[in-house]
Amino acid sequence: MSLLRGPGYDAFDHLATMVAVLRADGRCVFVNAAFEATLGLPRRTLQKSRIFDWFVDPALLQTTFRSVVDNEYATGRLEALMRRTATGGEPLPVHAILTQIGHGEQVLLELVEIEQQARQDRESRTLDQARVTKELIRNLAHEIKNPLGGIRGAAQLLEMELDNKSLTEYTGVIIHEADRLQALVDRLLAPHRRPRVVADVNIHEVLERVRSLVLAEHSRGLVIVRDYDISLPEFRGDREQLIQAVLNITQNAAQALVGQIADGKARIVLRTRASRQVTIGRTRYRLALDLHIEDNGPGVPADIRDRIFFPLVTGRDGGSGLGLTLAQDVVQQHQGLIECESDPGRTVFKIQIPLP
Fold this sequence. Notes:
five-stranded mixed beta sheet, disordered N terminus, kinase, phosphoprotein, ATP-binding
């Protein structure tokens, strides 16, 4: 008898990956909810079919399946194209994992969308990169801070000793630039200095605050559309930090929409949704907030698209290149992830934060 008979199958419905339990002849015993949703077919229909009917070219799958059933090896892996006849979609590239269960009586099939796997790998690299960048910023800022104080102090002393007032213009430049760099260093260190104030956060209160601030600055030519899922629960977080993070992104979007604002066609959408069974940084969460900030601007320049969260990288004249870096830091402090998709006419910043 299989070890997974009966109610044990129900747990598979909580997985985001497609899972099927198969008999030794390839016929289906069980498919989970993700399998139903992807193929667009009811469970009863799928459970009357054979695994090989679901794939474009099942030859390699048949060979691997038979090897697992015959106990030549316990687990087999391959890549394949999965049919989506019911939905009329293109074949879906998947990574298939076949594992023997129940002493060879059954085989567990897990299908991971290759794009999903690539996304998880990309998220992992992004989180690792952000941790390294954050540590570098902190160390660099501290190394700059002390010499800056000495430079400014020396310039002030020199200014007091100078009799020629025309020369004090030069010391004034030194003091002014030292102050400007000091302000930059303070912004780099701000997220690490300020203690987090953790409380229950309503994301829509955060968005409404951001919306009012941006519209106060751009009262004409810009529309900010609300597209909220009001059923989302509150979560524990730092409200003020989240306001600053979302404000940085939304202000960047508004500043990129200068041409559209002049024409009265600028549009930003603030969208919230719930996602289930989400993986963020190798951790699985039952529920997560999906926050999208979308604009109809010209898009992020292609040459910086992969580096926009790096400090001091900006596509705007006069920009500090710190707004997105600080936003990323805040989101990660909330165990979340931030990504950007951009094309001319549509840029979307996507934030995911775990929900209780």
